[in-house]
Amino acid sequence: MAARLTQVAVTGAMGGMGITVVKAILQSGADVIAIDRAAEPSAPHREELQRTAERSGTIVDYYQCDISKLESASAVFEVAVSSARYPLRGLVNCAAIGWVGPSISFPVEDAKRIIEVNLIGTLICAQAAAQLVKKHNFSASFVFIASMSGYVVNKGTPNAAYAASKAGVHQLTRNLASEWGHLEDGPSIRVNSVSPGVIRTPMTASVLSNGDFEQLWTEETMLKRLSAPEDYRGPIVFLLSDASSYVTGADLLVDGGYTGW
Q1: How many domains are contained in the chain?
Q2: Average pLDDT, whole number, for the chain?
Q3: Which of 23, 166, 232, 258 is catalytic?
Q4: What is the DSSP track for 135-156?
Q5: Is residue 260 part of a domain?
Q6: Are 145 and 117 in contact (CB under 8 A)?
Q7: Membrane-spanning residues where (predicted)?
Q8: Residue-number span of the structural domain to which 87 is assigned
Q9: Where does residue 255 fall: left (phi above 0), alpha (psi -120 to 50 degrees), or beta otherwise?
Q10: Across 110-122, average pLDDT
């Protein structure tokens, strides 16, 4: 990927998925702008990422930001890219929140917050990154982390607001790809999404602590196992790289066959 993308921004970079994605991108030869609500990763993760960057001759810089806030997010992208040694050529939006609860009584304010972060936050970051890509006139590739929940209902767990936000990410992906794939007055930006299945992360730990759910979801996959963040390294790096140069407006389902029955 180094020949195609030299600087990639990753949001939700300190989460269970985000840290793995940052590491994979560093290993591929690109510098990373790591953006998260947390200021920086825990000491063990920071040391691991620093070792990875040193071995691959890359750099990772950390920035704190709530991606659902337009002005602060735009400012963070501007500062981060202006301070980087290479042009921004990629974006991976991992930032997301969500929790379960019966829809008949699910707090509307909670639903608004989930959609603000997962859907509106994705649009805000895409706008900020696209404006900088256009300004510097380099083509780029954006990858949004959606979910299989944008297609199907997760059996046993009511999460309508989360599922709706991820279905929105699918449609946002297609629309931005159609608008930004060929700009007469600027560079092209490919926009794709990845839809994971159930992942073992801190975000899903409380739900997976219920053994019934873990067994149910495991049996629903064709591979008879749940996923780990490492399962998404290849798909994301592929979509960022020139290996996927004719792929845009697509969603890559990485769900162990869960939705294929």
Answers
A1: 1
A2: 94
A3: 166
A4: HHT--EEEEEE--GGGTS--TT
A5: no
A6: no
A7: none
A8: 7-254
A9: alpha
A10: 98
Strand, helix or coil at 134? helix
Q: In 3D, which of 249, 239, 246 has the Cα closest to residue 24?
A: 239
Please check whether residue 53 lies inside any domain of the structure: yes
* 151 part of a folded domain: yes
C-alpha separations of 224 from 20, 75, 93, 234, 256 in Å: 23, 44, 28, 20, 8
For residue 162, indicate whether it is catalytic.
yes
CATH number, residue 36: 3.40.50.720
Q: Is 169 part of a structural domain of the chain?
A: yes
User: How far is 177 from 130, CA to CA, in rounded Å?
Assistant: 11
pLDDT in tens, 65-78: 999 999 999 999 99
Name the 3-class secondary structure at 157: coil
Q: Per the confidence metrics, is the pTM higher than 0.90?
A: yes
* Residue entry with tokens 């994971």: 196
| Residues 154-181: tens digit of each pLDDT | 888 899 999 999 999 999 999 999 999 9
SS3 201: coil
User: Which of 162, 224, 246, 258 does the annotation list as catalytic?
Assistant: 162
DSSP notation for 41-67: --HHHHHHHHHHHHHHT--EEEEE--T
Structure-block tokens of residue 208 = 């997976």
